[in-house]
Amino acid sequence: MIRRRSTRSVDLALADEIMRDPDYDALPDRVRSAFKKHVRGLWGEKETAFMLDREFGPDNDRHVLIHNLRLPDGQGGFAQFDHILLSRFSRTAAIFESKNYAGNISKNAHGEWMVWYRGQHRPQNIPNPVAQVRRQRDVLAAWLKRKGHTKAFERIGVFVSVPATNQIDRSKLGADEPIYKCDNLVAAWTPFGGTTPLTRLFSTGVSGAQMLAIADQLIADHVEEPDIYVRLGIHPGVDQDKPTADPTFVGEGDLEPVPDPEPAPVIEVALVPAVEENPLMVAAERPEPPLPQPAAAEAAPRPPGPRKAGAQTEVCAGIMERTLPDGRIAFRAAKDDHIGREALTALCKGKAVWNPMFANWVCSPEVAIEVRAGLPEALQLAQLP
After folding, report:
1. Does the residue 270 lie in any domain?
2. pLDDT value, residue 385
3. Which helix (H) or strand (E) segment is 37 a member of?
4. pTM recorded for the entire structure
5. Which residues, listed in sequence order, are joined to residue 4 by a DSSP beta bridge?
6. Which DSSP symbol is given to 307?
7. Do residues 9 and 128 share a domain?
8. Of 225, 260, 286, which closes a domain?
9. 183 and 151, same structural domain?
10. Strand, helix or coil at 121?
């Protein structure tokens, strides 16, 4: 069963709206490059999540699937788990790391990984994905030990998933490297964590309730990842503002953020009454015209940029919410989540404002409390025939 659903469909829908916005091309190159890299990663995670959900979906009571989990690594950092699978009969935990490469994956004699992209004469170096997922395994093993669950899940397997269109140069990588095309991922996992009806009959695995309890403990320790839009200075979901780039964004190669400029003082201009000229007044006695004063608009500081939106969080079952810069709350469901969209519409219609550009419902914090409270029942009603 799926204990924590993947939100990548929602994330990709929002990213697509940002990239289709007319002002997207005006963003700095470093912002667009980082954002496109982020989107490629989302596509890889979505593809792998689809394969895993299809195999270990809601009707499967032998496994628990957790997507998008982030745990402290015990060294001041965090480990980002794309997908974790707990299997109670085989007493195994599996970590699946998604990579959305688009070429021939290989490595040289020094163990350095690279991707040969079509049309390029030189490969592009990449971090070792197997080493990355093995570090994640160490973090999960430490968590299980700290919680006293090492007997429940005695072995932890690691698997790297790449798109089915990739080429994997096994002659250079070796047959033992756990990297697989996503359409072969379940078949590669089966010898490690799969069971048969006969082995399940004599299995001494953990109970379903214990497996769910451990999964819930993992989810409770999840730490929300930093919002990519906040980090890049892109502010989606605000009615009156188009996506803009934060000038203080620090990209690769930048040393430090640009400090906010000191606002110039506003010069108040007093109204000078017109002087009625006396035609008999000699030039020497004629009053001098007042010196021109700077216009208030010229002296006023530039208005501050839009405040940053809050991090996107999951309310329940794929329904996401975000606090907008003006304090309002935006709720949204994925475009392909018809049940979630129907439930949100039923709760928000007449109380919230529909924003067609970002496909979300925007409401006050007071209304948001009612929406959150009513979502579970609304989702159940939306599933009824």
Report:
1. no
2. 60
3. helix 29-55
4. 0.63
5. 66
6. P
7. yes
8. 225
9. yes
10. coil
Read off the pLDDT of residues 194-212 as tens digits, 9 standing for 90 and up.
Answer: 988 888 887 788 898 999 9
Q: What is d(CA 332, CA 335) in angstroms, rounded to the nearest whole number?
A: 9
In 3-state terms, what secondary structure has residue 69?
strand
The answer to whether residue 166 is domain-embedded is yes
Judge whether 256 lies within some domain.
no
Residue 62 and residue 190: Cα distance in Å, rounded?
13
Three-state DSSP class for residue 218: helix
The label of the residue with tokens 């979630």 reads 340
User: What is the rounded distance in angstroms from the CA atom of residue 185 to the CA atom of residue 168?
Assistant: 14
Contact 54, 39 (CB under 8 A): no
Confidence category of residue 99, pLDDT binned at 50, 70, 90: very high
Please name the residues in contact with 316: beta carbons below 8 A apart, sequence gap of 6 or more.
375, 376, 379
Separation in Å, CA 317 to CA 66, 98, 158, 321: 13, 22, 27, 12
pLDDT digits (tens, 9 = 90+) for 123-160: 889 999 999 999 999 999 999 999 999 999 999 999 99
Distance CA 141, CA 147 (A): 10
H/E stretch holding 113:
strand 113-117
Is position 283 within any domain?
no
- Tens of pLDDT along 243-287? 444 433 333 333 333 343 344 444 444 444 444 444 434 444 445
Which of 197, 225, 253 finishes a domain?
Answer: 225
Spatial separation of the C-alpha atoms in residues 91 and 164, rounded to whole Å: 29
